Amino acid sequence: MKTRDTGTRSTAEAQRRRILGHAVRVFAQGGYRATPVADVAAAAEVSTAYVFRLFDGKLGLFVDAVDDCYDQVAAAMLAGAGRTSSTNPEDKLAAMTDAYIELVSDRDLIALQVHATSACDVPEIRDAVRRGLAKTTETVAKASGADTDAVQRFIAYGQLCHLIVQADLFDIDSTWARTLSHGIRHL
């Protein structure tokens, strides 16, 4: 099969990766329940039948997109920790914060995480969110060397950042919004 991007024969795994990239973006816009697989297929410029051939239905596609999202987050945390030569856990966490800010500057990953969390009543999605949180938490803990309390604060701070960015609190000139967004930076 020829692809538009490379003009070379594509493997099924390469197509899966490409479709997942589109799935993250499309599901980030509409969430699990409101997004038909046809929308993902259209964005990826493939047939819906081809998406079903590569993924285990809509649920499988969404779960794989959530897993991919958290894989990207964990990889960014690891890369961020590697950007500093310091062995101080606080410096490692600061470098991870910078890497995360870079990663989520387009907001699709944040939006997908929010949609996944809102669909945790679906056991497979809940399991994907749990896997993602586990992977992220374990990566942050290991790569930073920070203690449990510092890792918990780091993850909690990240969740607050999600809320602030999704609700565009930076643009609200009010004491409550300034209180929540105080000291928080985002691209």
From TrEMBL:
<feature type="DNA-binding region" description="H-T-H motif">
    <location>
        <begin position="36"/>
        <end position="55"/>
    </location>
</feature>
<dbReference type="InterPro" id="IPR050109">
    <property type="entry name" value="HTH-type_TetR-like_transc_reg"/>
</dbReference>
<keyword id="KW-0238">DNA-binding</keyword>
<protein>
    <submittedName>
        <fullName>TetR family transcriptional regulator</fullName>
    </submittedName>
</protein>
<dbReference type="InterPro" id="IPR009057">
    <property type="entry name" value="Homeodomain-like_sf"/>
</dbReference>
<feature type="domain" description="HTH tetR-type">
    <location>
        <begin position="13"/>
        <end position="73"/>
    </location>
</feature>
<dbReference type="InterPro" id="IPR001647">
    <property type="entry name" value="HTH_TetR"/>
</dbReference>
<dbReference type="Pfam" id="PF00440">
    <property type="entry name" value="TetR_N"/>
</dbReference>
